[in-house]
Design a protein that fits this description.
The protein is of the alpha+beta class. The chain has helices at about 1-55, 75-90, and strands spanning about 95-100, 110-120, 125-135. The protein is built from 2 helices and 3 strands. A hairpin with an 8-residue loop joins strand 2 (about 110-120) and strand 3 (about 125-135).
């Protein structure tokens, strides 16, 4: 009977260890997802700060949606866009950045839409973080 009790205890302990391993894997996945999302927010905020500090001309950072190397309205904007795109590609898996400008009207301010898109494990479609900058 003692041998049966030891085997049952070993079985219960094994199931518990498998549960702990599963929880550990889930926490690693959640941590990685949180890291990517935090990086996306930081990257969008970075280009938003650059847009706010370089307003001449007002549409200097307009890439027409898909940003590419060398786009922008002045030398500072071109350097900022190129540095930002490099950071997006480097820090996020499959990272793509885009900036779109919409001119304001009498009742509405000028608006930049900044989007950071990346691929994340467990999702079929890429995830996108969007930030609107009113200037």
């Amino acid at each position: 009977f003692t041998l049966v009790e030891v085997l049952v205890a070993l079985l219960v302990l094994s199931i518990g260890m498998l549960g702990i391993a599963a929880l550990y894997l889930d926490s690693l996945r959640a941590s990685r997802a949180a890291l990517y999302r935090t990086q996306a927010v930081a990257l969008a905020s970075d280009i938003a700060d650059r847009i706010r500090s370089n307003r001449n001309p007002i549409d200097a950072y307009d890439c027409g949606g898909e940003c590419a190397a060398g786009t922008g309205g002045n030398a500072v904007a071109i350097l900022d866009i190129n540095a930002w795109l490099g950071n997006v590609e480097r820090e996020l898996p499959g990272g793509v950045g885009s900036v779109t400008f919409t001119a304001g009207t009498a009742n509405m301010p000028n608006v930049y839409d900044v989007a950071v898109t990346w691929n994340e494990v467990g999702y079929d479609d890429p995830l996108t973080y969007t930030l609107q900058v009113e200037i």
